[in-house]
Amino acid sequence: MATAGTKLAFDEAKLNQFLGQAVADMGAAMHATLVLIGDKLGLYKAMAGAGPVPPAKLAALTHTSERYIREWLHANAASGYVRYDAATGTFELPSEQAYALAYEDSPFFLPGAFQVIAACCRDEPKITAAFSNGEGVGWHEHDADLFCGTERFFRTSYNANLVSSWIPALDGVQSRLESGAVVADVGCGHGASTILMAKAFPNSRFYGFDYHSGSIEAARHRAEREGLTDRITFDVASAKSYPVNGGYDFVTFFDCLHDMGDPPGAARHVRSSLKPDGSWMIVEPFADDKAENNHNPIGRIFYSASTMVCTPASLAQEVGLALGAQAGEERIKNVVTAGGFQRFRRATQTPFNLVFEARP
User: Fold this and answer.
1) Which range marks the domain in which residue 81 is found?
2) What pTM was computed for the model?
3) What are phi and psi of 6, to 5 degrees?
4) What mean pLDDT do residues 165-175 have?
């Protein structure tokens, strides 16, 4: 343990390399708040497709203060988020950045992730205390930006992949949904995945379940806004207690199994709720079974999120298995087979997700 006056031998070149990395991280951390401001005030949306704009014009378009806008724009230019033309004093949002920052229906939209980061920063005192006492911090105990930010961030991946590639990768599920199936979306949050499936498969009936009442309330409002209340029912229920409703043809868990306190118990309940020929789709964060293979930029995000959100959430529940967001395929398979499933396979994947199919 380092103490005052401790002197360690070090390689100066390696130290300078690390300091450069740390400075880049500090810049990214500071800039994250500015991304949130740009998202909330519609600054990126106003710049998208507008070409080069001076600070005064952007301020006028967004009813904001020019002096603040000027500083914000220079910070974005230093971060590589916008382009600066010194000759004209104008700033431009490139098309590539616009797809990531301005268009919410884009599969590359990022501001939701920055909301999650902001929520984690606000929740730091709770997690720091949990490090000392070993207790959990429930999903419902987090800053509200976590709920909204998670939905906005994951929705982009679901929009890009769920209907077009994930469901088609499952054995016979797409045709069943097209003809009319009964579906349970467990851990549905604000209902993004449930609503997306309901819109794509109008002959099927959907039930969304989540233990967090605030999320279910938000999901109900969205279903009503989309005119889908005749085919979607959202209810407060946990993964081990949601109603069977006569049996489901298809059960889905999106990025939530690893958050649960008792994943094998949840798997057993899924098994009991499925029809004999039903299918369970489990979407999990991408992870290799070997931890060292996850020590990369994507693993860095997931391990950090797991430390702040996923592991505390599991530890706050009964059993507290705490799989973590980088559990890997083998551990997920063990959970699923412990729940009574005989067939388990990786159906498909993306750089951010593993998609598994389990059958009785």
Assistant:
1) 18-103
2) 0.93
3) -65, 135
4) 98
